User: What shape does this take?
Amino acid sequence: MTTLVVGAGLLGLCTARSLLARGETVRVLEAREAVALETSYANGGMLTPSLPEPWNDPGVHRHLAASLFDPKSAMKLHLHAVPSLFFWGISFLRNSAPSRYFRACEDNFRLASYSLQQTQAVTRELNLQYSQSSGGTLSVFRSERDLNAKKVVADRLAALGMRYSLLDGAGIVALEPSLADVRQKLVAGMHFRDDEFGDAQKFCVALADALTTSGVSIDTGMQVAEIVQSNGRVTGVRVGNESIAADRIVLAAGPDSRQLLRSLGISLPVQPAKGYSVTIDVSGIAGTPRIPVLDDSMHAGVTPLDHRLRLVGTAEFTGFRKQIDQVRVDNLFDLLHALFPSVDARIDRKKALPWAGLRPMSADGKPIIGSTPIDGLFLNTGHGHLGWSMAMGSAELLADLMQGLAPAIDSGPFSFSGR
Ligand SMILES: Cc1cc2nc3c(=O)[nH]c(=O)nc-3n(C[C@H](O)[C@H](O)[C@H](O)COP(=O)(O)OP(=O)(O)OC[C@H]3O[C@@H](n4cnc5c(N)ncnc54)[C@H](O)[C@@H]3O)c2cc1C
Assistant: This one.
């Protein structure tokens, strides 16, 4: 039985790995000229079970409405995108009800925790190198209000096994001396010691190499134009004029998944949420952070990746436009200045590499993993801002479901039905 995986980003490649590990024959089709050139390319690199909150937190409607008129808003809705977001947007707002929001936090936490273990296991087994590091992540807070909001979620997750330490100014600087300059501006910090970090694109390239060595064919430059079905069962895909037969198909095409399902009459509640990163070579510059630092009030973070620093954040609802807006890039430099002013003073901003990617954002903030109403067609997408944190676990979950095995965690919250 051959399974075609559509998309060679984090989710597609991890899915291929999990199916291969269960003895399946897998072929991956990727539209771009290499793997991980879309959303998995230059993300924040954080593997964070500690950050499972969907972005539609209670009160999100006020932020989105205000963002229409604020070019610097951390989460920005663009007026031109409103019509295309209409039905998805209603569901996005409906899911911001506190009960749904907190349930999604817990579901995402369970999946991300499981995923971290699976990422560690695959990394060990295949000896993957991707500038990875452990040591946790540090969230810093500039107001009691922000701190208290995060504590509400953190305490719920602590009951599920998440470990964190609350830090005062001295504790923050002891953990991360690079924050000494700004210590007075921070009211507290939280250290999530089980989190890890690493370069997702390097992980994808290393994993793709290992898969290819094990006989998986990863075909690039293959844009799937259509998923073909007959009598309610998939039969293959069409790429240009070529028909490729398959017994089963896993759609892991990130934000493009929605479009591919439309001709099958399936409406996927996923929309693109654009985010930015800026990567800076900091070789030879002292005072850079050791672990990722998230500035809760600025909704952005800084991740060390070897000799580089990656600034990351912001969400824009602006359809599929990937153009880089300098205002958003400047927001990230503002973050660097606000956290590490002496590093900012020593870098050459003109040499920094800005990037924008489209997060596949589901309306309820949880990924969509499992079967569809069409026999043989499976989904692994909609991971939003948590696709790196959840990739390996999502793949394992899906592969178990496809083989009729009992998954290690409850798959119910992520199933397509009822979404
Ligand atoms: C700025 C930013 C920062 C982020 N930071 C983090 C972080 O720190 N931690 C975290 O956990 N997550 C983070 N994320 C989220 C994470 O990067 C995404 O959730 C993840 O990359 C999504 O992976 P994917 O495989 O679903 O999509 P993609 O990486 O986009 O892969 C989909 C692939 O499918 C291909 N494709 C699309 N259509 C077709 C077609 N028709 N035929 C064939 N191939 C097709 C695409 O070319 C692409 O390669 C961040 C995202 C952004 C934008």
About this structure: The chain has one domain: 2-414. The longest strand covers residues 270-281. The chain has a mean pLDDT of 95.
